[in-house]
Amino acid sequence: MKLFGTPVSRGIVAGEVMRYAPFRAEPSASRIDESDVGTNLELYDRAVDMARLELEDLRARLAPRVPDEAKILAFHVEILSDPVIDEEVRGMVRTGLMSGDAAVAAAFDKYSDLLGRSKRVLMRERASDLRDVKNRVLRCWAGEKEKNLSSLDRPVIVVCDDLYPSDTLSIDRGGVLGIIAQTGGSTSHAAIIARGYEIPAVLGVSGCMGCLKDGDMVVLDAERGEVVMAPLGAERAAYEARAVRVEAEMRGVRRWRGAEPITRDGRRIWVGMNIAGVSDRELEHAPSSDGSGLFRTEFVFMGRAGVPGEDEQYRIYRRALEAFGGKPVTLRTVDIGGDKRLERFGLPKEENPFLGLRGLRLCFARPEPFGAQVRAALRASAHGDLRIMLPMVGSLEEIARARAFIEEQGELLDARGVEWNRGVKIGIMIEIPSIALIADLVAPKVDFASIGTNDLCQYLNAADRLNPSVESCYQEYHPAMFRVIGDVARAFASHGRELGICGEMGGDPLVIPALIGLGVEKFSMGAASMAPVKRAIRGLDMASAAELAGEARELGTAAEARECLSAFAARSSPDA
Ligand code: PEP
Ligand code: MG
């Protein structure tokens, strides 16, 4: 039997299934008999003790590496011992005759709702600490172990409904052979990270959670977008042979990672790396790049107990600058929202999160954490070529407002006598059509810009980048994309401003020649894409790239564009 989905990260692997579903608390609402009060209180004590042990263990492990996060876990231990909440739970069990787990949920919800309504960010953050602790106690009550993908005892193929970007970020690269998910598309953040880590992945596999059980043996074919259940004999042998061929081909392409990205006629193209943190693993290939054209800083805020403070962020951004050894690092201010949820920012529930309070819009609504991030970035700017890039910009007013905000943060640093680089470059992401269409007015207002093709494509085609049902409408090769990108490139060139691309198209070797032909000569991409992109650059010359770009603008459909790009790639191989 086979299941089908969208292949988002190459490779073919065989292995054992591990279903991954984060714990969802469902406390029983039932009332208990008086005779069960004692047992419920005992179970409550046991769940709290287990939660405390977990927290203390985690805190001890994290303290040497991330002391700020360890402090938050210590605070969670304090919450567990809070006499007011504890008495509330016991009272609900004893006199309200509520089951212990229902009482835990009710008591924690009561206080977190109160804090959540506060106008002060600090208070709202405390509300999410209470929710974290509540979930931990309820999971312990249910006797379930904490599940995450950061350390696995054996290699597995992860099968899940949805994978949050924070899960993907902390993934155990050796333990996770592949990923199969019911939702998500090729530019979801889970896909972007899987690709960066070279973990084969097929997303949008409808029904996979219903059909696959823990321990099932499957072949994940992320070349064709198939999941094959328990293939035997000749079928299995055929997959294995293809897996070996694909791996050899990928190894061959990887040889280009260290190459100079220079066209046949000598034009040097800038090839940078997208990063989501500063771990050694994340920065492993920094030396092969020209710098970072996109540091997705929101990942620094995700998958951890608390929001990193100004000092911690300053150390992280400085570390990124050091890792790139004097090359530019483009720090994108937090782009929370859409598929990157962060409870601590107190995000409201929205019908259309991709059209909602996201990126810069959210930063304006939460000036305290935004200010801390900007101050940390400005402080780091004293140590190298750090650039600040704003996400989800839709109008000139937003650019002016953000610039004024950044200036204010600089003044706060001046008042503290802290050094920062006054010439720090400030740029924007071009990903909302309203800003792309006024690129001629935008260019003089910024130092640089980078086209976020992932969002530009979803907004231009009105197709949710996560929704597998509209995958066919999400057309990166739609002629509208080529026209908009070409017009933006022309506007920026005429004002002498730098323009790059840091969305997934910027790491797609098939389309790179056309983008160069449209006038873009800076690309930033996941580490794994640097080799195939450099290989594509070395196979082309500027005149034929310009000709190709002209054709792509005029072709009527994405399918025709793909055909044209594939034919170009076939005749431009540097190996030929
Ligand atoms: C983009 O939209 O293309 C982009 C680079 O930003 P993100 O994928 O993080 O939304
Ligand atoms: Mg984007």
Overall shape: globular
Question: How many domain modules?
Answer: 3
Order of strands in the sheet with the most strands? 1-8-7-3-4-5-6-2
Poorly predicted runs are none
CATH hierarchy: architecture of the largest domain: Alpha-Beta Barrel
Query: Count the strands?
Result: 16
Number of separate helices: 23
Would you tell me the overall average pLDDT? Answer: 92
Task: Summarize the amount of helix as a percent range.
Answer: 40-55%
> How far apart are the first and last residues' alpha carbons, in Å?
40 Å
What would CATH call the homologous superfamily of the largest domain?
Phosphoenolpyruvate-binding domains
The small-molecule ligands in this entry are:
phosphoenolpyruvate, magnesium ion
The profile of the biggest β sheet is: 8 strands, mixed
Fold and architecture overview:
This protein is α/β, with parallel strands linked by helices and 576 residues long. It folds into three domains: 2-20 and 148-233, Glucose Oxidase, domain 1, CATH 3.50.30; 34-141, Enzyme I, Chain A, domain 2 (Orthogonal Bundle), CATH 1.10.274; 268-540, Alpha-Beta Barrel (TIM Barrel). It has 23 helices and 16 strands. The strands form two sheets. An eight-stranded mixed beta sheet has the order 1-8-7-3-4-5-6-2. An eight-stranded parallel beta sheet has the order 15-14-13-12-11-10-9-16. Helix 2 crosses helix 5 and helix 19 (479-494) packs across helix 22. It is globular and about 85 Å long. The model has no long low-confidence stretch (mean pLDDT 92). The structure holds phosphoenolpyruvate and magnesium ion (MG). The site of phosphoenolpyruvate has 10 residues, from strand 10 and helix 18.
